[in-house]
Amino acid sequence: MHEIIEIATKANELFAQGNYTEALKLYYLVLSKDLNNSTNYCNIGITYEIFSEYELAIAFYKKAIDLNTKNIRAMNNLARVYIDVAKDYDTAIKYLDYIIKISPNDAEAYNTYGNLHCIKNEYKMAETYLKKSIFLDDKFFKNYYDIANVYIQTGDMQKAEENLQKCIELNPNFETAKELMQKIK
Q1: Which of 67, 77, 104, 151 could form a disulfide with 159 if both were Cys (CB 3.0 to 4.6 A apart)?
Q2: Closest C-alpha among 159, 178, 179, 180 to residue 170
Q3: What's the whole-model pTM score?
């Protein structure tokens, strides 16, 4: 067991450094030693998502959830792939509803739900979910970026700027937010 933890830790370090190919090799090594590790399946799914191998990402997220029906990270990631890639909003909603049911304070689920409503041009609902996400985690910079996009869509540039500014304060290296700020000024 100690060996598996060491390998998984090294894989996570490689992943954090952006060395996804080597991380994936180590995740598979963990898999060869432990077929029931839900977190490892989720990590493989995340890696495949980065490689734009979405069918594999979905399969590994589903396996992670099969092994642990409370693997919120896998469910959030799977919902996001269903929204952004598969455009299967109904399936994404099922996962997001389940996350909120078992973990009502999960800020990421509310963020993902907000983005889904934004995609569907349901801006009031998007704003509601994103505000809830901010309430639950006011240090997650992406919440402010996402709600700024809602305000841009609804024409409220003052709120958009305020939220982009907060986003940039929390993550000064988030170039996309800086570019959007310049674009709307």
Answers
A1: 151
A2: 178
A3: 0.90
160 in a structural domain: yes
Alpha-carbon span 170 to 157, nearest angstrom: 20
CA 27 to chain centre: 20
DSSP 116-135: HHHHTT-HHHHHHHHHHHHH
Residues across the chain? 185
Stretches in the chain below the pLDDT threshold 70: none
Could you tell me which residues come within 8 angstroms of residue 180 by beta carbon, excluding any fewer than 6 positions away? 145, 148, 149, 152, 164
Looking at the chain, which runs of residues are DSSP E strands? none
Is 75 contained in some domain? no
Q: How many domains are contained in the chain?
A: 1
